[in-house]
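May I ask you to comment on the folded chain given beneath this request?
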Amino acid sequence: MYINQTLKMNIKKHIPNIITLINLFCGCIALVFASQKQFELAFIFVSLGIFFDFFDGFFARMFKVQSELGLQLDSLADMVTSGVVPGYVMFQLILNSFGSDKVNDVNSWDNSVMIMPFLGFIITLGACFRLANFNIDTRQSDSFIGLPTPANALFILSLPLVIQYSGIEFISESLQCIKVLLVITLLSAYVMNAEIPLFSLKIKNFSFQKNALQIFFLAVSVVFLLVFKYLGVPLIILFYVLLSVVNNVFIKKEK
C-alpha cells in the first residue's frame, strides 16, 4: 500500500513537468516550420505550446506538487515557444521585406540586409528579461504587469498570417514595411516589460459580477476571431492591453 501511494505521488509530481516539456517540444516544432516559412503551422504549434503551458500550472496546483524545478522549467520552455520563435518570425518578416529578389541573391546583400533582420531578435531579448523578472516578481501572482510572453508570441506569429489572409491591402503592405516591423519589434519588447498592470484571465469562481471584465473580454475576443479571422488575434491582444489600461483608470477613480 505504501509503495503504491509513493508511486502515485511520484507520477503526479512529474505530470506537470511532462506537460511543460510538451510545450517546449511544440516550440521546437514551431521553430522548424517558421524556418521553412510555413507560418500557419508555426502558429498552430505555438498555440498548442501555450495551451500546454496553461495546463502545467493547473495540474501542479491540482495535485499540489508545485516546485522550484517546475517554475524554472516553465520559464525555460516559454523561452523557446514564446521567446525564440516570435523573434525568429520577426527576423523572417524583416528579411522578406527587402524583397525576394534581393534576399535570394546573397551577393547583393548590403549592410542593411545583413544587420536589420537580426533586430527582430530584440523580441527574444525582451521575452527573456520578462521571464526572468516574472520568476522573482511577487506582484504577479493574481494578475500581470506587462504583456505575458505567450500573448506577445501569438501577436507576432499572427502577423505573417494577417499579411497572407487578411485581404486588406493597407494592412498587408504596412506589415511588409521595414519601419513598421521595427516599430512593432521595439514596442513588443517594451510592452512585455512595461509597468502596465493587466488583468488576469483566470476565473476563480462562478460569480458573474466578479468576473464581468473577463467574460466581456472573452466575448469580444470570440467576435473578433469570427469576424476578422487571423487579423482578430492581434486585435484581441491590443484590446486586452487597452481594456486593462481603462480598467486601471476606473480602479484609481474608485480609490
